[in-house]
Amino acid sequence: MNSSQEPTLSANVAGLMDNASLQREKSSLDAMPVYVKELIAGGFAGALSKTSVAPLERVKILWQTRTPGYHSHGVYQSLNRIVKNEGFLGLYKGNGASVIRIVPYAALHFMTYDRYKCWILDNCPMLGSGPVVDLLAGSAAGGTSVLFTYPLDLARTKLAYQVADTRGSIENGLKLVHSRPAQNGIKGVLTSVYKEGGVRGLYRGVGPTLTGILPYAGLKFYMYEKLKMHVPEEHRKSILMRLSCGALAGLFGQTVTYPLDVVKRQMQVGSLQNSVHGEVRYKNAFDGLRTIAANQGWRQLFAGVSINYIRIVPSAAISFTTYDMMKAWLGISPQHKKSQSSSAT
Fold this sequence. Notes:
By secondary structure, the protein is mainly α. 73% of the residues lie in helices and 1% in strands.
């Protein structure tokens, strides 16, 4: 063999090795169950979208829980105050708990949505295959994911709230009174809550969460699929289209259910509220809505809604778009999913 043939031979061997590697990777993906692929896609989408808006989520929680020094400020002032008092990383306090929660939450949310949708399509043909199915499947998926991951959401809220309210400081001439020291990490919060209230304590605020998530999750998926139906076929795979539809779907769902989110946050941090506000004890979601409107004013039911609009646009857009793209990369097709569901039933 002469030297001029050696580069060509080396290139061919390298090409064959690359192709073999790609085929092995593709084969391992094909062998993976569809629901596992959906869990991976949903978890990745959730983590990416949540981290991208973590600073805004922190400010929203501080507003919703009427934390002194924050609830009367604007977005920029609040972000500035956090950085000044706690440093840049303060913007991401509680985000660890948020990501740990959102990965299983989003994974279950998207996976069970696809599973419920397939089941409805296979067993309830009278409903057709339009967005109504997405509404029902999305609502059921939202409830399922909340029940499995709620204690982590409780821990995330307590961490975000406590960190901002644990410094002995003076605001407007009044020394803040702190009911307890801040817990260190998710385990510390969950252990403390469990010792105080048992399993019931870990699910404080789950009532308004479920009341809000059922319509929110359903409307979000309904609007996303409905909007995509009005997009020309040739543009449906466009990233910009998916981002736009996801953002609009999130905005619509949040507007309808936002007051319930405020009730949930106040119930979650009830025992941490300082003496200025007293402990928050609501019998249920509707009692919370009525009490907040009567004692704090109806505007408090929408405390933080402006920042939530700013937050939900990138969050929902990134979440839906990433999930769709991950499904395409993992090779999940609607036909494949439907046939899997049929065989399982």
